[in-house]
Amino acid sequence: MRMGRYAVMTVLAAACGGVPDPEPAAIGSGDWTLEPISTFTAAMDDTVLVNSITGLQPGHDGFLYVTMRGDRRISVLTTDGQQVRRIGGEGEGPGEFTGINGLGWRSESLWVMDTQLGRLSWFDSAGLFLGSERQPEPHLRPTSSGGLLGMKQLWVEATSTRVEFQAPGQPGLTTVKQISWIRGGFRLPQGGGTFRVGAHPLSDSPLATHHPRGQGMVVAERSAADGPVVLTWISANGAIIREERVQLEAPALTGPAWRTFLDAFFNPSLGPGISESQLDAVLVRPDRWPPVSQLQLSTDGKVWLKGPTMPGADVTWTVLDSMATRLGSITLPADLRLMHLSGDTVWTMRPNADDLDVVTRYLLRR
Question: For residues 294 and 282, what is the distance between their CA atoms, to the nearest angstrom?
């Protein structure tokens, strides 16, 4: 295996008996491409985990802070995937977790969320446990102001969503924004009860993304099925900064594409025995794909809007600046996950041929 500009974790070949992944090529079309800088395959100790990465946050020290499915610790890695140390452990004591549901930074301190225990734990970058506090609601995230901010989704038979803020040292929540939307939740029958409850798979519900460093969030919503996307910037202290409207393409949703989408969405692990007639009874096919399926914020304030995710097709991301001015777009493979955006540096995760997570750091190039 050639080393140099690219570095791949050697544990991959030993653990799965395969060969190292090929060095990634530049990907993307449109106004930009992504040029690879480094890559590694996710592993934990001597065990390679399939679809393992749940979170990735670069630290101020240049290391990566990574959470993996089934692991009750944070793995601190170099940018080429070499393990530096571990933070935390399994349990309910100080600095321990029953599960990790999110992590991020407030200044130089790392916060880790454990919704089962209902608490936030704090560490310094060296992994020293600093303390913990009660997590009042699982949708709230720490902000750089010392408060907590988040968007609460009520999926079932509800068409209302709230953006809420908790000021430092205050017990109550303040509603920053109340949002009404079009398609609410659904229930699927199973025997004499309900098998599954959730949101419409192509819902018009609002989407939200937090700033990677806790400097507020952006919320995207649509006021009408064919209307513009409304973006709302909310500061770290829970104040609405501004609202902007962006017109994005919403392609027609054909019957065959709808059926293909449902076949992929309602796989056997979600809905065994669910018939097409039961689906058709509770899920009305929209006329068009939602124009935004996901959004993310870069550390420099850019907003990345992911377009319609159609079965088997690449996905186009539209990139706006902090004033909602369109900067350009890039079309990427549908299975490429954007894990962290920092200026022109893009951290991604994508499964390889063995369904193992490959992390690649790219540079955004025109």
Answer: 24
Question: What whole-number distance in Å separates Cα of residue 53 and Cα of residue 69?
Answer: 6
C-alpha to C-alpha distance for 158 and 156, rounded to whole angstroms? 5
For the chain, percent of residues with pLDDT exceeding 70: 86
The residues near 204 (Cβ < 8 Å, ≥ 6 apart) are 181, 182, 183, 222, 225, 290
Torsion sign over Cα 104, 299, 293, 231: positive
Q: Is the pLDDT of residue 51 over 90?
A: no
**Given this model, what pLDDT does residue 270 score?**
52
Rounded CA gap, 99 and 119, in Å? 11
Closest CA to 87 of 43, 131, 45, 123: 123
| 299: phi then psi, degrees, rounded to nearest 5 | -65, -20
Q: Which two tokens stand for residue 327?
A: 């900067």
- pTM here? 0.89
Let me know the angle formed at the C-alpha of 103 by 98 and 107, rounded to the nearest 5 degrees. Answer: 135
Edge to edge, what strands does the sheet with 326-332 contain? 29-30, 326-332, 315-320, 303-306, 294-297
Contacts of 256-265 with C-beta under 8 Å, sequence gap 24+, read 257/310, 257/311, 258/285, 260/311, 260/312, 261/201, 261/202, 261/310, 261/311, 262/201, 264/311, 265/201
**CB burial readout 27-47, b (16+ within 10 A) else e:** bbeeebbbbbbbbbbbbbeee
Dist CA 61 CA 108 (whole Å): 10
